[in-house]
User: Which sequence fits this backbone?
């Protein structure tokens, strides 16, 4: 397959990341089909993409024709069987067994030529690919949040990923207006591995009563970080951030430095997942 052969892209999961990834694919001219098991998630994604495109117009970055063209490229479905595409990008919850079962189903629906990409933050691509026939077409395509704004994409090759597939995904990222960096397969890849202590140490400070959420966030911002660790966890999704830490803790043989925080676990149990749920470390008017 060549980059020019890619005409249709499927997005699995219409949450925080799926929304933004779908938007950039549609804006780049690809017929983009978004699938989610929750009808409400699909509706939220439709509204969020519309809001983002309107904002782009207000800022003079898009014309009305650009907006209409992007909207025309988007379809939403609750039926996974419709996802017969050239490339599928999976962005569902950070759980290996969920991702593996989706990839198996995708492999049944599509021909072996379809590239199956995962937006996973931390799960080794080799593990996801192990569940799929033709694992050479499974690759990591890790966008950053918010996906319609952040330029970086990590392209991750698993043990079986073919160099051609990784190369096409790198080219595709470029076509989406992103800068792709090729990385090897390792839990958390590069960015999430380096960034992990930003969250885990902040949570330890909170647990030890050294400082409160607001103080830690203000200090880290004042020291040059764009966002403090707690507002960033709320943006990412407290549940997603917790799952990423948990998955890395397991993958690194329970090394103490990756131990997930009880405070974070409690927020997740309470459904306080950050901005997307209206409540996390802070409260939001959604
Ligand atoms: P999210 O919780 O906001 O959205 C997940 C979506 O997947 C939900 O709409 C849910 O209904 C849907 N879903 C769950 N099971 C499904 C299934 N079997 N079939 C179809 N849809 C299903 O999660 P978020 O934050 O968008 O994360 C998705 C993936 O992207 C995860 O692997 C995460 O690690 C990764 N990621 C997240 C980032 C972030 O900042 N939130 C940044 C980069 C990657």
Assistant:
């Amino acid at each position: 397959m060549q980059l020019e052969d890619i005409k249709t892209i499927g997005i699995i999961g219409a949450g925080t990341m799926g929304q933004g990834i779908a938007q950039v694919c549609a804006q780049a001219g690809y017929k983009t089909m978004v699938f989610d098991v929750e009808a409400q998630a699909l509706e939220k994604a439709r509204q969020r993409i519309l809001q983002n495109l309107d904002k782009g117009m207000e800022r003079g970055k898009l014309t009305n024709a650009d907006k209409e063209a992007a909207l025309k490229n988007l379809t939403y479905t609750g039926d996974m069987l419709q996802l017969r595409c050239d490339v599928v990008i999976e962005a569902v919850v950070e759980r290996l067994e969920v991702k593996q079962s989706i990839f198996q189903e995708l492999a049944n629906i599509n021909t072996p030529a379809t590239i199956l990409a995962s937006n996973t933050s931390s799960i080794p691509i080799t593990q996801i690919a192990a569940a799929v026939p033709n694992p050479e077409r499974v690759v990591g395509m890790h966008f950053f949040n918010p996906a319609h704004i952040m330029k970086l994409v990590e392209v991750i090759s698993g043990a079986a990923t073919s160099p051609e597939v990784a190369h096409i995904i790198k080219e595709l990222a470029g076509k989406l207006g992103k800068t792709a960096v090729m990385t090897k397969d390792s839990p958390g890849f590069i960015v999430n591995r380096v960034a992990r202590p930003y969250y885990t140490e902040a949570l330890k400070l909170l647990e030890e009563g050294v400082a409160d959420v607001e103080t830690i966030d203000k200090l880290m911002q004042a020291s040059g970080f764009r966002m403090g660790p707690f507002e960033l966890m709320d943006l990412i999704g407290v549940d997603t951030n917790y799952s990423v830490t948990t998955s890395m803790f397991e993958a690194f043989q329970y090394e103490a430095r990756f131990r997930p925080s009880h405070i974070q676990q409690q927020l997740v149990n309470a459904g306080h997942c950050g901005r997307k749920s209206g409540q996390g470390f802070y409260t939001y008017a959604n």
Q: What stands out?
A: The two ends are 42 Å apart (CA to CA).
